[in-house]
Amino acid sequence: MEDLKAKTSTPCKDVPALLSSFIDTFVDFSVSGQFLLPINPNPVSQNYSSTTEPQNPVPLPSPPPLQTYYPAQDRLIAIGDLHGDLDKTKQSLKLANLIDESDKWVGGSSTVVQIGDVLDRGGDELKILYFLEKLRREAARCGGTLITMHGNHEIMNVEGDFRYVTKEGLDEFRNWADWYCIGNRMKALCKGLEKPRDPFDGVPLVFNNVKAEFTEGFRARVAALRPDGPITGRFLSKNVTVLVVGDSVFVHGGLLAKHVSYGLEKINDEVRDWINGMKGKWAPEYCHGGNSVVWLRKFSHEFADKCDCSALEHVLATIPGAKRMIMGHTIQEFGINGACNERAIRIDVGMSKGCGNGLPEVLEMNGNSSLRILTSNPLYQKKYKSSVEAERREGLGYLEHGPRQVEVKA
């Protein structure tokens, strides 16, 4: 009889953890339409009792350190600002043959860098975060890598600055909050699970200058995205702020020499500590103002002759082996282009319907040498219509080898 009890006790004690994983998966699918199973659901290792508090739980592993430096990749795709447009996000990935018609990863060992600004201006912000997380896992299983970065809009939202939020964006977060709270209530009914944390704890009931019909959406967004919030901790804590891959430096706005001397790895670590609720409400100083890493426009002005090329050369000289800086943040009306002798590559094409509704383009890099623009713009199928247009493109600093080698996809 005692042997029978021993055999049945282990499955029974695993029930709370299994139920919790099921509820989380159920909530994820209800919010995003994606199945995101727990990465390491190891209920057998948990030591639950019949009380509401876990007894001697196995500590969760610390998150892996953010990686700032990567060697040159055989194939790297850089994608600009997405701003809540899931359709354009998928179009961009399909341009580079990274996903198939079923939205599954087919990019093999490719590396993808999404340069920030997933949030604001559109209504699919959460769906994009979930989708990129799904692809991150699928890519990893195939030897690929998906790297996501912070833009100024991620920083703004974690600080509670919702100036560029749409009604659809508020509705999406309100829907998330409804399902998330349903999941918490389900967990609270199960003995053996710790009482779930209330995501709305400390969130104001009303906000100055916010209409009553938007209050619930505002509250949900604050609850989800504040430092150490459920969405912030789950998705945005994986973002880097600065990145070096081979001889290319990636940053949303731009880097100055003072940022490099402060320390690129230090910047990544400090921003993640802030995201995880360890540094107060406000982001570090280098994330604020026109000369910050996520707001700088010195090297991304639409007209190449207005870029501060001497400052860019100085910055690149302080990063061993760096030959170019790749940036988003500033919309390039005529597509991805280069300035300062192709040392500044600007990849924000304003593709979101809420932010220009431009045609998707992505940058492809092979090793440290080859750069190519992959575009859905049909104009590239024709020769320049006039010498005036050719001069205009040259004045914008297009990659010298770019237009001739552009790969066009419908």
UniProtKB/TrEMBL annotation:
GO terms for molecular function: hydrolase activity. Gene3D superfamilies: 3.60.21.10. CDD domains: MPP_Shelphs. InterPro entries: Calcineurin-like_PHP, Metallo-depent_PP-like, MPP_Shelphs. It comes from the Eukaryota. Signal peptide: none annotated. Residues 75-331 form the Calcineurin-like phosphoesterase domain. This is Calcineurin-like phosphoesterase domain-containing protein. It comes from Rubus argutus.
